[in-house]
Design a protein that fits this description.
The structure holds two protein chains of two kinds. Chain A is built from eleven helices and two strands, in the order αααββαααααααα. Chain A is mainly alpha-helical. Chain A has one domain. By secondary structure, chain B is mainly α. Chain B has one domain. The chains are: A mainly alpha, B mainly alpha. At the A-B interface, helix 7 and helix 11 of A face helix 1 and helix 2 of B.
Chain lengths: ~240, ~50
């Protein structure tokens, strides 16, 4: 799993494809694999009752479970549905690219993703950073921001900052708005300052929380850095 | 330049609050609402008060 890459990768895709894609479906696609399942991986407390998957790893990435949401075929199916419902190729393609970026990025951890589902339930993983979603959320954050995961996110932040022009008002007016009628529709109720904030929100969210989690993990707490492959060693990583 | 300063201030405030209350860092909705508050709602309210 990644903590900031899913917020930032859509902007990189946007930069390369310009008006051929739209940022809203790119972001929805990027968030979609975890959108309805992550809370059950970490667990939540409802009126004193803990709701949590018995086997969070199996639930999140496996089959049986919702691991199919991280497959390339799932992205294709939802993109096809979007095309059927909206008749928008831009929305369909954007969703697909955002979704595939998520599925491929999560290949980086020690579990990986079932990219070839439903043809295979094998997970493809590089094992670069520890998957620790089976622990609690804060331990997972501490582990992620101590291993290579946060470095990977940092690459996207750096790339985003080097591509700063895509965050400007001019780029928003000339490329983002013409590519997607959604912006004109929202613009009936909100001024441009609000639209720009919404456009930049995921970049803001990904970047600031990357900084905040690093400070939290290493200045407020003492989680040791371990940039070895598959690290950090101090957390019990899940493996497929 | 004023807009950039506004976003940087919002980012710094969000980082400080997030370090103190990490649960703030877990919600995209809250993060986006915070940004809207800092760069749109509060500046618009201040302009109206002047």
């Amino acid at each position: 799993m990644s903590w900031a890459a899913h917020d930032l990768e859509p902007y990189a895709i946007q930069r390369h494809l310009g008006g051929k894609v739209a940022i809203v479906p790119l972001l929805i696609g990027s968030y979609s694999p975890d959108m309805f399942s992550k809370w059950f991986v970490y667990g939540i407390d409802v009126l004193g009752i803990e709701l949590k998957a018995d086997d969070p790893v199996q639930f999140h990435r496996g089959w049986p479970g919702v691991g199919f949401t991280h497959s390339l075929a799932f992205g294709l199916v939802v993109a096809a549905l979007i095309l059927l419902l909206t008749r928008s190729r831009v929305w369909s393609l954007s969703f697909l690219l955002g979704h595939w970026a998520h599925a491929l990025t999560d290949v980086g951890d020690t579990i990986g993703t079932m990219l070839a589902f439903p043809f295979s339930t094998e997970t493809f993983g590089l094992g670069a950073w520890a998957y620790a979603g089976q622990t609690d959320r804060l331990t997972d954050a501490g582990a992620y921001f101590s291993g290579l995961g946060f470095v990977w996110d940092g690459v996207w932040i750096l790339y985003g900052l080097l591509s700063w022009r895509i965050l400007t008002r001019d780029y928003f007016r000339e490329t983002i708005v013409p590519a997607d009628p959604v912006w004109r529709w929202i613009g009936r109720w909100l001024p441009e300052a609000a639209l720009l904030a919404l456009y930049r929100a995921s970049f803001f969210y990904g970047t600031t929380r990357w900084v905040a989690w690093l400070i939290w993990a290493h200045l407020l707490n003492d989680y040791p850095f371990d940039l070895s492959w598959g690290g950090p060693d101090w957390v019990e990583a899940a493996y497929d | 330049m004023r807009t950039l300063a506004l976003y940087l201030a919002a980012g710094a405030a969000y980082v400080v609050l997030g370090v103190i209350w990490p649960s703030l860092l877990l919600s995209w909705v809250e993060g986006t609402a915070f940004l809207l508050l800092c760069v749109w709602i509060l500046p618009a309210a201040l302009r109206r008060l002047r």
